């Protein structure tokens, strides 16, 4: 997958492109990360990337031309490298809430361009003409879109085939099957008087699978009942919930 980052602070992305599972995916070539910095498309000697908003008021906006050119360059590169046209996402607190299902869908794209805003955001006409989708990572306002873009990169990358060491682990994570994950335990068997549930020591894989599913169902019902609304339950899930 090709991911282009349009940002004034490309160095911030080292957190996901150079470390951990996502960093390994980049090194293995499963994800190709490219940068396009609006500052490289400025023409004045101060390399100005912000401008005053029409109508006045506090704060600045990102200057439209350098940003548009940075997106255009990212588009061209994505098309050259993948042969596909890129899906352009503007990270914005006003966007649709980013969630697991959108991460899975975005992981199907050949090329993504993530546009990180700064200051008070970007000119509305740029969103209208250049952006396919606005995504928000939550109901709060960040100082810039980079952290939000990193959240998207991380969540999307771990959905790509071959990225997670153990193929099945993404499928068992919270949200993957519409449920929260079950509780997990590692050594020691007794931690401050709290012992690992016996079934996990039994070696009976079928029993363990049913116990985990029951725990996941119970946890979801308790913490996120909204996830169960309208979710089709299997006969086994109905049985386990009733137990
Ligand atoms: N004036 C804007 C508003 O109230 O909608 C907020 C601008 S914010 C200070 C600067 C940039 O941070 C935005 O352009 C956007 O890229 C990013 N950003 C802030 N909060 C975000 C969120 N919850 N999700 C995604 N991006 C966010």
UniProtKB/TrEMBL annotation:
Reaction(s) this enzyme catalyzes, per UniProt: guanosine(37) in tRNA + S-adenosyl-L-methionine = N(1)-methylguanosine(37) in tRNA + S-adenosyl-L-homocysteine + H(+)
UniProt EC number: 2.1.1.228
Domain of life: Bacteria
Leading EC class: transferase
Keyword Chloroplast belongs to the record: no
GO-annotated cellular components: cytosol
Signal peptide: none
Family matches, as InterPro entries: Alpha/beta_knot_MTases, tRNA_m1G_MeTrfase_C_sf, tRNA_m1G_MeTrfase_TrmD, tRNA_m1G_MTases_N, tRNA_MeTrfase_TRMD/TRM10
A Pfam family annotated for this UniProt entry: tRNA_m1G_MT
Keywords: Cytoplasm, Methyltransferase, S-adenosyl-L-methionine, Transferase, tRNA processing
One record GO biological process: tRNA N1-guanine methylation
Subunit structure: Homodimer.
Function: Specifically methylates guanosine-37 in various tRNAs.
Protein name, UniProt field: tRNA (guanine-N(1)-)-methyltransferase
Underlying gene: trmD
């Amino acid at each position: 997958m090709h991911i282009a980052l349009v940002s004034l602070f490309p160095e911030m992305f080292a957190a996901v492109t150079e470390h951990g599972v996502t960093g390994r995916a980049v090194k293995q070539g499963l994800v190709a990360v490219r940068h396009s910095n609006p500052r490289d498309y400025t023409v004045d000697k101060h390399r100005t990337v912000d401008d005053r908003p029409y109508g006045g008021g506090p704060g600045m906006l990102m200057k439209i031309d350098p940003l548009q050119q940075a997106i255009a360059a990212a588009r061209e590169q994505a098309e050259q490298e993948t042969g596909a046209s890129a899906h352009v996402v503007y990270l914005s607190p006003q966007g649709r809430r980013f969630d697991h299902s959108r991460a899975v869908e975005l992981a199907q794209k050949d090329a993504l361009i993530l546009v990180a805003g700064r200051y008070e955001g970007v000119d509305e006409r740029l969103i209208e003409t250049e952006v396919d989708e606005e995504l928000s990572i939550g109901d709060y306002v960040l100082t810039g879109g980079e952290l939000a873009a990193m959240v998207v990169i991380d969540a999307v990358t771990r959905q790509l085939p071959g990225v997670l060491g153990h193929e099945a682990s993404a499928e068992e994570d919270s949200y993957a099957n519409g449920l929260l994950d079950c509780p997990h335990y590692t050594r020691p068997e007794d931690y401050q008087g709290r012992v690992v549930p016996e079934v996990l020591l039994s070696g009976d894989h079928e029993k363990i699978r049913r116990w985990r599913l029951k725990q996941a169902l119970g946890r979801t019902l308790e913490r996120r009942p909204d996830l169960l609304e309208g979710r089709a339950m299997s006969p086994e899930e109905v049985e386990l919930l009733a137990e």
